[in-house]
Every structure is written in C-alpha cells, then in structure tokens.
Write a structure and sequence with these properties.
By secondary structure, this protein is α/β, with parallel strands linked by helices. The chain is 38% helix and 15% strand. It binds ligand FNR.
C-alpha cells in the first residue's frame, strides 16, 4: 500500500489519558507507510458562529490546516456521559465551519476507544459516527474497537497486551485500506 498521512484526534485532554496511551500504542504497531501527527484540541476556543466572519485564531487555523493536509483521520476517544467529550465535538465544529469550508469533508475516518467500563466507549463511538456523517466523513464501520482499560491492557512501556496487538494490527490494516480507497 502507498504512504498515507493520518491526523490523530484524541478526545481526552487529561495527562494520564488511556486513550492517548492507546493512540501511541497504535502508532507503534502501524506499518512505516502510515505517518501520524497528533492534532491538538485543548487550546481551541469554544466554537462561536459569530467568529465565522473573522480570520481564524491561530489554534483554529492550525487545526484546519492539519486536517486539510492529511489523508485520513483517526479518532481515539473516551466516552463522557454516554457521548463524545465536549472538547472533541468543539474541535469537529471548528473544522466544519465557515459554511462551505468544511475541512473534514471526504476525509476517511477510523474510530477506536478505551474505557474502564465494560462497554468500552461504544455509545460515544455511535454518537461520533452520527457527527462524522454530518461532516461528510466516510467512516470505517468494522471491526469496531471497544477496549476495556483493565490492569492487563498496557505494560509498563505502554504497549498493549499481545492478543490486543494482534487485533489492533488487523484493524490498522483495514483502516489503511479504507484510507487508500478514499484518498484524494
Ligand atoms: C466518564 N467516564 C465514562 N466512562 C464510560 O465508559 N461511559 C461514560 O459515559 C462515562 N462518562 C464519563 C463522564 C465524565 C465527565 C468523565 C470525566 C468520565 C469514565 C471514563 O471512561 C474514564 O474517566 C476514562 O479514563 C476517560 O478516558 P481517558 O481520559 O483515560 O482517555
């Protein structure tokens, strides 16, 4: 498969985030023809439609450029109150406006997540699929990646357990293929 640039959006802002750790573990498992860049969302202002007529502030311009420049987007998100964290929704809203300048449009997406709960972010992912459909992102449907953050999932170096590695490698192959199919 040919090279592809993947922008990684992590829905958690906290320092010890399981989802950030998972994003790093996935990057380590990925083949060298996939390159990854982290998308910062913690310094974005709250989206306000009144700002659509003004030049974007630096953090918003950075987000928009980074998404414009990528071939695909990997969302790695926790579940907050059975949906996506507000910070992630805020970032998606920023990228979707001003009207007619939606940077997410046509970018292939993948979603994975990890939670201490047994449902492993499934509700958040389902909500995220709805949001991504509305910003015109073709999103890989299967396999779904709902991981539970038990005490065995990460080793001390942040690598996931062997059986999870195997599963994630096969997911990455599917995602890579998905990005190639939709790459522009
Ligand atoms: C949570 N958590 C949580 N977990 C879950 O499985 N379903 C849920 O609906 C919620 N709701 C929720 C709301 C809020 C405001 C917080 C702060 C947390 C727990 C959550 O999965 C846990 O804190 C994870 O560790 C968050 O992900 P990171 O930050 O570790 O990536």
């Amino acid at each position: 498969m040919t090279n592809a640039k993947i922008a990684v959006v992590v829905g958690s802002l906290r320092a010890g985030s399981f989802n950030r750790k998972l994003s790093h573990a996935v990057v380590r498992l990925a083949p060298p023809d996939l390159s990854f860049s982290d998308v910062r969302i913690d310094d974005l202002p709250l989206y306000n439609q009144d700002d659509d007529d003004r030049p974007a502030v630096a953090s918003v311009a950075r987000l928009r450029n980074q998404i414009r420049d990528c071939d695909g987007v990997l969302f790695v998100t926790p579940e907050y109150n059975r949906s996506v964290p507000g910070g992630l929704k805020n970032a998606i809203d920023h990228g979707s406006r001003p009207y007619g300048h939606n940077v997410w449009a046509s970018k292939p997406a993948g979603i994975i997540g990890i939670s201490p709960g047994k449902m492993g972010t499934s509700m958040a992912q389902q909500h995220l699929r709805n949001i991504l459909a509305s910003v015109d992102m073709p999103t890989l449907a299967l396999p779904e990646v709902f991981l539970q953050a038990d005490d065995k999932i990460f080793d001390s170096a942040g690598n996931v357990a062997a059986n999870t590695q195997q599963f994630l490698r096969s997911w990455i192959t599917r995602f890579h293929d998905w990005v190639q199919q939709h790459k522009r």
